């Protein structure tokens, strides 16, 4: 598993684990965790930031569900081509080794489990990995789902990037989602400014925390959290 | 052999009231804007439209919806910042919405073209969008039963056609075009170029001519063509 | 409906309807009946002969289920390319406007009802258009089906070309197939050396006979035959 | 990024006993003969093989069957004039046969790659090959329920790969290759040429690199290459 090089001394490095992460650091952390050679789909919004921090030597290939593998960075100026856009309808570029395919082939690629990772935003994630990110469920809301359910269902790993706490302070990691679901039991990791959570067969394990103690985190989250593996080893030694 | 229409109006002239019409495109890429305008001009109403979205701004599909020509829309993402005409029609109860996850939409279109009677997909299992649908657990995983979407007409945009009706597309403008062409009784294509039969390499044809009924040339804006040539 | 130009005076023309047709004439008849501009799949064996009699002005496009539209004639000599074969594994050529696609796309084209006509051989055809052409059902036979069921099921029109009578003299147009079925109710026409049969909602109608009278035909076939529409008109007039 | 193996033996070295192995090709076109020979040399046994046929003559798959390495074959057309090794094994009860209509075989492979749990097809309805299978009448037409075929390995042949693993094929040698590549956990491809990443036009790639795990170059016989160049 890749770890964030948090002790790296380069200038402008993100704050250490003593502070909650900002959006850029969170994106950098997700990017660093993506295994070399992976095929990845980055959802619209915050997940798109991850692409800024993928290193060329990671050789990550980006998929966009509107029919392309090998998507490059956003296009600007003369590079803009109205026939070359990403799922967010933003003009993008093409990298060497890219390929184009139609929508059924693109979603076959997703549904068939060929993407290694997709990174999505979320309204809520449940203790069992249920994802809610497409619909508030408000009675007057006009629903729109796009490719959210396909991404949630299809990728080998579904990483969620979200704020851990809503504006009212309640946790978005919940015992059971109250928003309509996007997918059942699909989330494998949650990246938040305060902590990274791994959804394992044993339950939700905290991998690391930022600017908060494990106890502090547990105090604000209504699902049982398992300690980082290193901490657990310490605890066992103490027994 | 396809009909080569001389105008977009001629190309869509056969479209009757209450038809099901697939419209290609994702965002502006691959959107057959001139064919949609011609459909608006042609006056057909009571349409069921299949498209990824439900119209944007004050153009194309949005105008069809504004004019209340669309009785029902089957799409994955109707709500956008500029989907005001759809929003108004929907809130007024004047348009029926069938919301389908994007990949299920694509697969249902593909199934119609491929003669598949129905299929089970894991997408949407356990969500609002599978409520009331048949489900089945296959190898321990929940699946939803989905059915093909056939259309009377497909309006799509490709880059180049040969006179036999073979099509190639450009970049992400390919999107829904190839599958919609297979799922409609009549497929009407607007292209930037028409070339002689035999001028397209048989290895690179994306839509074989069997799926194409009518072609109409709508020249692309010059900058795009120039870019295309540079990219070749 | 196209008719065989049976009174055409060109030298070498087939014998008139007073004699049963030979294989070449039967193939010529099928070819002449295929509507201009059709997409057609010709099965292995006798149906392949039809391609010899398609006229260029018919603009018929041939499909081969191993992934090609726009198939040309058999290849010979230096034109043989081992990567370009038909469903019978015979080297063929490519015509202008041809395209290649993979097996799933090829059979989607067939199953989806996009081919106008396929022409198949048969062991038996039933009164309701059931087709048996893949398996004798003999207990020691090793079965092999290939694309027979897909062709029988998928094409808009399924034309059968066969001998009307087996070697033992029994008709192969039967009340119910005794051989294992290839497809149910799929055959729309039967071309035989003695007659052409149209399978209609009213029943099996004889379109024309060759070297045999309608009564003679009915005497040897155990399914009820409806007379040609022209004959029926005559009969009505006589009443 | 795919592994670029230096020999076919190295390419197939990981294939274990009792694996399910898809083998591309229709007739000789697209048949990965050298990979099959390497599989024979590698000694894996108890295999389930998915192929359109069941081997011909005294080469390739026929030899695997002769050597009793194949416990089961899933195919559409086992019986041919020169399928004597299959015939002998079958009559001796030493190979299991699952006979599948060719289009259903292709669609089941495609379904596995596309994450479809099962589908209804009209092909085979009312025949011996649907006996014991679930059926459903859809819009008045009988359909048979069919399930995906997944494989541990696919051995396929393509014409050219780039170093990223993107593939193009040649003429009717394309056949089962693109769908088998999607349905196997590990796809091993023999190609005539390997080119630099970026040398293949993104519009004409048939198998995107995501489906390819191992590439090995097996030069084509010179005459075929010469013909190919003439045809370009």
Describe the structure.
The complex is a heterotetramer, with two copies of chain A (about 240 residues) and two copies of chain B (about 230 residues). With about 240 residues, chain A is an alpha/beta fold. Chain A is about 20% helix and about 25% strand. In chain A, the strands form two sheets. Chain A has a ten-stranded mixed beta sheet, with helices on both faces. A three-stranded mixed beta sheet of chain A has the order 7-6-9, with no helix packed on it. In chain A, α2 (about 105-110) crosses α3 (about 150-155). Chain A is globular. The model of chain A is unreliable at about 1-15 and about 235-239 (pLDDT under 50). The two termini of chain B are about 30 Å apart. In chain B, strands 1, 2, 3, 4, 5, 9, 10, 11 and 12 form a nine-stranded mixed beta sheet that branches. Chain B has one domain (about 5-120, about 150-230): Glutaconate Coenzyme A-transferase, CATH 3.40.1080. Chain B has about 230 residues and is an alpha/beta fold. In chain B, α5 crosses α6. Chain B is built from seven helices and twelve strands. β6 of chain B pairs antiparallel with β6 of chain D, so a sheet runs across the interface.
């Amino acid at each position: 598993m890749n770890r964030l090089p948090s002790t790296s001394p380069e200038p402008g490095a993100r704050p250490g684990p003593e502070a909650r992460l900002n959006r850029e650091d969170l994106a950098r952390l997700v990017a660093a965790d993506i295994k070399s050679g992976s095929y990845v789909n980055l959802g619209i919004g915050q997940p798109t930031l991850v692409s800024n921090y993928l290193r060329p030597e990671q050789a990550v290939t980006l998929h966009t569900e509107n029919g392309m593998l090998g998507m490059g960075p956003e296009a600007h100026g003369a590079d803009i081509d109205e026939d070359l856009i990403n799922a967010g309808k933003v003009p993008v570029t093409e990298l060497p080794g890219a390929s184009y395919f139609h929508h059924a082939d693109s979603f076959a690629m997703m549904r068939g489990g060929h993407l290694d990772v997709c990174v999505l935003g979320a309204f809520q994630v449940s203790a069992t990995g249920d994802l809610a990110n497409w619909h508030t469920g408000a009675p007057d809301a006009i629903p729109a789902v796009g490719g959210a359910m396909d991404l949630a269902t299809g990728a080998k790993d579904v990483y969620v990037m979200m704020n851990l706490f809503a504006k009212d302070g309640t946790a978005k990691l919940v015992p059971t989602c109250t928003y309509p679901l996007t997918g059942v039991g699909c989330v494998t990791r949650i990246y938040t400014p305060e902590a990274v959570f791994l959804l394992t067969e044993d339950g939700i394990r905290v991998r690391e925390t930022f600017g908060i103690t494990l106890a502090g985190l547990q105090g604000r989250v209504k699902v049982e959290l398992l300690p980082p593996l290193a901490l657990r080893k310490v605890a066992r030694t103490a027994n | 052999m396809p009909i080569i229409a001389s105008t977009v109006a001629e190309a869509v002239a056969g479209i009757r009231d209450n038809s099901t019409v697939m419209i290609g495109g994702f965002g502006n890429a691959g959107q057959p804007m001139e064919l949609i305008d011609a459909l608006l001009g042609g006056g057909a109403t009571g349409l069921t439209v299949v498209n990824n979205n439900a119209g944007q701004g004050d153009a194309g599909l949005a105008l069809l919806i504004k004019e209340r020509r669309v009785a029902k829309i089957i799409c994955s993402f109707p709500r956008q910042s500029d989907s005001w005409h759809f929003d108004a029609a929907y809130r007024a109860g004047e348009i029926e919405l069938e919301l389908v996850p994007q990949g299920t939409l694509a697969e249902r279109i593909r199934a119609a073209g491929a003669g598949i009677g129905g299929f089970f997909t894991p997408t949407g299992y356990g969500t609002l969008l599978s409520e009331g649908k048949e489900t089945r657990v296959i190898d321990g995983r929940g699946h939803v039963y989905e059915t093909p979407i056939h259309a009377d007409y497909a309006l799509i945009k490709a880059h180049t056609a040969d006179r036999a009706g073979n099509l190639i597309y450009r970049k992400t403008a390919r999107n829904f075009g190839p599958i919609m062409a297979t799922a409609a009784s009549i497929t009407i294509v607007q292209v930037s170029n028409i070339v002689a039969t035999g001028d397209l390499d048989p290895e690179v044809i994306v839509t074989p001519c069997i799926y194409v009924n009518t072609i109409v040339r709508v020249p692309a804006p010059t900058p795009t063509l120039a870019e295309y040539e540079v990219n070749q």
